[in-house]
Structure prediction request, 413 residues.
Amino acid sequence: MTSPTSAAVSHVGKIRSQNQDSGYAGTHLFLVADGMGGHAGGDVASAIATKRIAQADRSYPTAQDAEQALRESLIAANGLLADTVFEHSELTGMGTTVSGIVRVGEQVALVHIGDSRVYRYRDGVLEQETSDHTFVQRLVDTGRITPEEAAVHPRRSVLMRVLGDVDASPEIDTKVLDTRPGDRWLLCSDGLSSYVTEEKIASILGSFRTPQAAADRLVRESLDHGAPDNVTVVLLDIDTTGEVDATPATFVGSVAAPLSFEAEVDRRPLRLPTLLLHPLKATAPEDAHFEPEREAYLEELIEEDRRRRRRRRITAGVLLTLAIAAVIGAVTLAYQWTQTLYYVGVADGHVAIYRGVQATIGPITLSEVTQTTGISVTDLPTFERESVEATINAKDLDDARAIVDRLETAADR
Ligand code: CA
Prediction:
């Protein structure tokens, strides 16, 4: 008896109320789809696409045949999504990512659009086989930002390509890769790859023997990180027999539930073509929207980012100015307060009345002589002289004058 060589797990996550991901682990075909498009469109899009593409789960003579069939099935799914939107205008703007593989002997045909991912895990090394069709990945590819900047970029969830009703001939990536017994293929939605590090993913793939246990653990890991997004994991082990996958075909996520969008019609407003965002992956950047990959649009987005940075700099400048003004105000008030105080001290060997406090801040002296007297400190008795030299605080100018009078009397004695 052959043990299962594949597994599919999908979880709604900890924050969202609805699972818009779909997954499929079939006989030859394995795929994930991550839907988007507001209240109900996302789950519909990924479910429709997954069901349609699952029809391509057949035996193919060559990996190139499988590659071609996959491409055609994605284009067919894209048409089906457009037809569905035509009949249900409230679904306008729905779309879905699709990442899928078909195994043909020692090769794997891969198809990909969006930001779900396919990884090959071999000899302890995890290798990403897909490139995210995101705005930030485009910026990284063209050397405009670093991968580190991309990870925290405000537009990191904006997709440049998906299946949906936007583009009649979407640009789909396909390729053929080699595989061999011992390889483990991981397909996942960004609900995994955005929250669990590749290091951690590799360590889990290396430590759980069965695909089911590894897939469960990967989803668990995302949940342990808060799982703000839906998370879907499909795993395929390439076994030593080289036979087809013995596990019964499995649908998970939105595609496993009945389509419910018709009941939603009255509740959803008509939407304009749309925010192709994964809503909780990031704070939605204002006015973000989907556009096919046009260089002009990219430039527009980059310019907008520049404007945003400039705005941020101006805001920072204004705040700094206000802070400085507040400090100056406080210092001025404090200085004015010191100037209501008086004390009696010595100036040029004579008793004098000072206004302010006997202190300096850097080059600023906080007191000045306001009245000199003819009383020489050397004429004062020891106690009074030492008191004046140490300065005598007065409540106000009258009090200071009274002190001077007393000192004059003492000097005359
Ligand atoms: Ca997602």
Remarks:
- The chain has two domains: 6-260+268-293, 342-412.
- Residues 264-275, 279-292 have pLDDT under 50 and may be disordered.
- The domain at 6-260+268-293 is CATH 3.60.40.10 (Phosphatase 2c; domain 1).
- Residues 181 and 234 are 18 Å apart (CA to CA).
